[in-house]
Amino acid sequence: MNDLCKDRVNHVDIGGEGEDQRIDNYLLKVLKGVPKSHVYRILRSGEVRVNGGRVGPSRRLTIGDKIRIPPIRVAQRNQDANPANPEIFDVLHEDDEILAIDKPAGMAVHGGSGVSSGLIEHLRSTRPNQPFLELIHRLDKETSGVLLLAKKRSALTNLHAQIRDNQTRKIYLTLVWGSWDSRINKVDLPLRKYVSKAGERRVVVDGPNGKPSLTLFKVLETNGKTSLLEANLKTGRTHQIRVHLAHVNFPILGDDKYGDFRRNKLLQKYGLKRMFLHAHQFSFTHPKDGKKITLQSPLPKELRQAMRSIDESFIKESKIMK
């Protein structure tokens, strides 16, 4: 952690190297190895001081600023820890209006449907001084990636209007079986939600009764065995990408609801133990200053490793067949 001592208070005078940097970016640089969530927490709590006063994460530094950095005591991550523990996910962006996190797979965004407590409930409990915190959009439990929350009602209303008017851009990455049909660049099929006899919430393509639903697709990589796709979500229906891909016979690998169950079980030996769907990018206009913002989350390590294992098995099989 450079010359800073993590066990005591540090006082730093800003020189030319820190001029015009945001305080959050500066702290992330000098506190190497400290989770982003912890850095933002000590900013929110007021433990970090600039010239004796509290500052927000967007405060820009000038030469001569004096920063107080508190002792950094971060609990060690436990592999068996509750996945909703905020230490386990990264904060991608935070200001007075919005909070964006990198949601891990396996975490429900809210309680209900057999889940007593979700991500939003845990965030509220760990931010008792945050009077307002609401989900701007949702991700399925097994979907990872960019998740946006509002810290003010005005921000929530503004972002909901942007989503409704198709002024945002949501890009997902997904892996399907086989060589992608290049003739398919979009799926424009209405979707309808229903509850099965077993009480399970499901979605089906239904022309007469469904709601308009449009997804644009672009193939990024293919090896003849699998295809990595970019899915541009133009509408935000429940399970939209999953159902659209299943309907055109390219179900998402690892999808336990609309996928190929036998193949999913076989793919577990390659390390694919979750649905291969990741919210990679979210672009929007900031509700306060009108600036364009694009937030990105890289493909998680476990998905990259699973894709590599599947690719390697395909190469071996191809050599055997020759």
Please characterize this protein's 3D structure:
The chain has 322 residues and is of the alpha+beta class. It has 2 domains: 10-69, Structural Genomics Hypothetical 15.5 Kd Protein In mrcA-pckA Intergenic Region, Chain A (Roll), CATH 3.10.290.10; 86-321, Pseudouridine synthase, CATH 3.30.2350. The protein is built from 7 helices and 16 strands. The chain has helices at residues 23-30, 36-44, 119-126, 153-164, 240-247, 261-267, 301-321, and strands at 10-13, 49-50, 53-54, 66-69, 91-94, 98-103, 134-135, 144-150, 169-177, 186-188, 191-195, 201-205, 214-222, 226-233, 277-285, 292-296. The strands form 3 sheets. Strands 5, 6, 7, 8, 9, 10, 13, 14, 15 and 16 form a 10-stranded mixed beta sheet that branches. Strands 1-4-2-3 form a 4-stranded antiparallel beta sheet, with no helix packed on it. A hairpin with a 3-residue loop joins strand 13 (214-222) and strand 14. The protein is elongated, with a radius of gyration of 22 Å.
The DSSP helix count reads 7
Per CATH, the superfamily of the largest domain is Pseudouridine synthase
Output the radius of gyration: 22 Å
Query: Percent of residues in helical segments?
Result: 10-25%
Strand content: 25-35%
In total, how many beta strands? 16
By secondary-structure content and strand pairing, the structural class works out as: alpha+beta
User: What CATH first level of the largest domain would be assigned?
Assistant: Alpha Beta
CATH topology of the largest domain: Pseudouridine synthase
Unreliable segments (pLDDT under 50, ≥5 consecutive)? 74-87, 318-322
Largest sheet: 10 strands, mixed
Please state the average pLDDT score.
86
In N-to-C order, the SSE pattern is: EHHEEEEEHEEHEEEEEEHHEEH
Q: What is the number of independent domains?
A: 2
The span between the termini is 53 Å
Question: What is the CATH architecture assignment of the largest domain?
Answer: 2-Layer Sandwich
Outline, from the CA principal axes? elongated
